[in-house]
Amino acid sequence: MPVLDVCGVARRFGRRLLFRDLSFSLSGGECLAVTGVNGSGKSTLLRILAGVMSPSEGTVSLRVNGTGLSKEAHPLHAGLVAPYVNVYAGFSPRENLRFIARARRLANDEQRIEETLASVGLARRMHDRVSTFSSGMVQRVRLAAALLADPPLLLLDEPNEHLDEEGRHMMSAVIEDRLRAGAIMVVATNDEREAKQYARTLCVEEYR
Fold first, then answer.
1. d(Cα 97, Cα 207) in Å, to the nearest integer?
2. Selection from 188, 149, 143, 145 nearest residue 170 by Cα
3. Which of 7, 35, 113, 188 could lock 97 by a disulfide, CB 3.0 to 4.6 Å apart?
4. Tens-level pLDDT at each residue, the chain (208 residues)
5. Rounded distance, CA 123 to CA 150, Å?
6. Distance of alpha carbon 59 from alpha carbon 6, whole angstroms
7. Alpha helices in 30-182 (DSSP H)
8. What is the H or E stretch that residue 81 is in?
9. Per DSSP, what are the bridge partners of residue 41?
């Protein structure tokens, strides 16, 4: 079972303090909603949790099956879905995921790719160029890319942005499926109704 430990984390940009003294722990099957107004530091916190940005103070550690991961291994065990995560517009969804699968040396990559794309509703569009997609369809590609390696930690930054009603239902189903599978989920949102769906919430504005 994965365990995410956050201890005394702070992040500053120059003299600007986003948050400080932020501590919590999450285990597999748990979900945390991170709330706050735009610019409050939600996206920055998710990047820190994903291991792609360092905190100014404090530590973030991810353990999988009782083994602590190194700083280098941490990002490989985290999936991040966010508007600032790029996908290759000139590639198809299948080609995007094939690139990721080969970079991470995933076994049974073709079958895994097809199943992952089907799970986000892209089975019929897997061969089309991403450049022809709507913003909601691109969000599905980002989600598929994050899910491909079956990460124990999944981080969603405004996951319902650009999604229609059917897409929102799909996203909810994916979240429920990952929680049942024992993953840790962190969802950043400024939608209070969305945040209320989750048992635990953290408002970054309270840590200044």
1. 37
2. 143
3. 113
4. 899 999 999 999 999 999 999 999 999 999 999 999 988 999 999 999 999 999 999 999 999 999 999 999 999 999 999 999 999 999 999 999 999 998 888 877 888 899 999 999 999 999 999 999 999 999 999 999 999 999 999 999 999 988 999 999 999 999 999 999 999 999 999 877 777 788 799 999 999 8
5. 18
6. 6
7. 42-50, 93-103, 109-119, 135-147, 165-180
8. strand 78-81
9. none
Alpha-carbon distance of 92 to 88, in angstroms, equals 8
Q: φ, ψ for residue 82 (rounded to 5)?
A: -160, 155
Q: Chain-centre distance of CA 204, in angstroms?
A: 17
Residue at token pair 């996203």: 171
Coil, helix or strand at residue 90: coil
Q: Tell me the whole-structure pTM to 2 decimals.
A: 0.94
Give the number of C-alpha atoms closer than 13 A to the C-alpha of residue 155, restricted to the C-beta side.
26
By C-alpha distance, which of 20, 27, 33, 21 is closest to 4? 27
Is 18 within 8 Å of 40 (Cβ atoms)? yes
Tokens 């598929």 locate to 144
CA 62/CA 4 separation, integer angstroms: 5
> What is the SS3 assignment for 207?
coil
- The residue ranges of every structural domain in the chain are 3-206
Q: Is 106 exposed, middle or buried (0-12, 13-18, 19+ CB in 10 A)?
A: middle
The class level of CATH for 3-206 reads alpha beta
